[in-house]
Specification:
By secondary structure, the chain is mainly alpha-helical. Helices cover 73% and strands 0% of the residues. Residues 345-382 have low confidence and may be disordered.
Length: 382
């Protein structure tokens, strides 16, 4: 009798976990379907109206009309791929920064990493005269600017022992400082450089070619592969550094390597498409609202959600507003602000509600770890 009760008690958590697995897989499939449908809509968007089957043939250069092949392969398809790669990279970078810093408000934009990369790229364009992003000059300078911000954040966290809220406030201050420095650089730029900087800071997906896509794709793919191999480490880190160390994880090396990879990814994206904010902040939260804290599903979910948000924002800016390219930075930021306001209530004035979102309680308090292979994801059913 007692053994039967014990067996039934042991089966119940597995059932809950399996239900959460099914829900998470269904969410990932849904996001993948939405991304594919959005890509097809973006492929049709434009003044040159063409049947969808001809557009699909144009992807492979098999359309009977050479104009269709030219428009699809040289204009629309690179833009769609840029949105997918950049959105995936920014969403994943935000997810990892939130995990290693154990701060739900951390992202490349809130910590000042994007602004540091923007400042480095502005220095490359104005001071060194590197107005062409096809080379390595602008991405390298953007990476230097972003890594300076990351080292500042890590230094404050390690030597000043500031709280997670203090890290975000420090990031806001650093963002303002680098934004002001970028504005100062614009004052000394000539007309051509100023026009390049202003147009670039709006966020533009239409200026990248296949060579730029290759570089961004390699960097984002490297980050994805690394994060997939360390997904269990992120789950353990949610319970605190002490728990992660007891499980054999080198926490200091994990944080340092992830910060460098996130800065590299952000700097390459910013150097090619301009300053695009809030995707790294919003995309992981949308995923956690459905799947919880399990990074086995949060990582691919953040990739798909970030890509979908950026592609939808670009499609909305180009087609719905006035059939021309608008500021991606403005429209994507507006959508993100609407999401944040929707999640807030009247009693939340300091972002405390964000810690109470489904799947985020692991950031505020430790989660219990049980084991099938040594480390079970934190709170899979939240």
């Amino acid at each position: 009798m007692n053994s039967a009760k014990l067996q039934s008690a042991n089966k119940q958590p597995k059932t809950v976990y399996q239900q959460n697995q099914i829900k998470s897989i269904c969410f990932l499939v849904l996001m993948a379907v939405i991304l594919v449908l959005t890509s097809l809509l973006a492929l049709r968007a434009g003044s040159y109206t063409t049947p969808l089957n001809e557009l699909i043939k144009g992807i492979f250069g098999l359309s009977g009309d050479d104009k269709i092949n030219l428009v699809v392969r040289n204009n629309r398809l690179p833009r769609i791929c840029t949105a997918i790669i950049a959105g995936a990279g920014l969403g994943l970078a935000g997810c990892i920064l939130q995990a290693i810093l154990r701060n739900p408000l951390a992202s490349a934009s809130t910590l000042g990493v994007s602004q540091g990369a923007s400042f480095g790229a502005a220095v490359a364009i104005v001071v060194f005269g590197m107005g062409n992003t096809m080379g390595l000059g602008v991405p390298v300078c953007a990476f230097v600017g972003s890594i300076l911000v990351a080292l500042t954040i890590l230094g404050l966290s390690r030597f000043r022992n500031i709280s997670p809220e203090g890290i975000v406030l420090s990031g806001v201050a650093i963002s303002a400082m680098f934004t002001g420095a970028t504005t100062l650089i614009q004052y000394f730029a000539d007309e051509v450089q100023l026009a390049t900087l202003v147009y670039w800071t709006f966020g533009n997906l239409g200026s990248t070619g296949w060579d730029d896509l290759g570089g961004m794709g390699i960097v984002v793919a490297a980050l994805i592969v690394y994060c997939c191999f360390h997904r269990w480490d992120y789950n353990a880190l949610l319970s605190g550094s002490e728990t992660a160390v007891s499980l054999g994880i080198n926490v200091r090396r994990l944080i340092l390597v992830n910060m460098v990879l996130c800065c590299l990814t952000t700097s390459v994206i910013v150097a090619n498409v301009g300053l695009i904010s809030f995707i790294g902040l919003v995309a992981p939260h949308i995923v956690r609202m459905v799947v919880g804290n399990n990074h086995i599903y949060v990582i691919p979910g953040s990739i798909l959600t970030g890509a979908t948000i950026l592609l939808l924002s670009d499609l909305f800016a180009r087609v719905v507003i006035c059939r021309s390219e608008q500021s991606l930075h403005s429209w994507e930021g507006l959508c993100s602000c609407i999401f944040c306001l929707r999640r807030a209530n009247g009693n939340d004035k300091c972002g405390k509600n964000l810690l109470s979102l489904p799947g985020l309680s692991g950031y505020a308090s430790g989660c219990q770890l049980s084991d099938e292979r040594g480390r079970i994801p934190c709170c899979p059913g939240q």
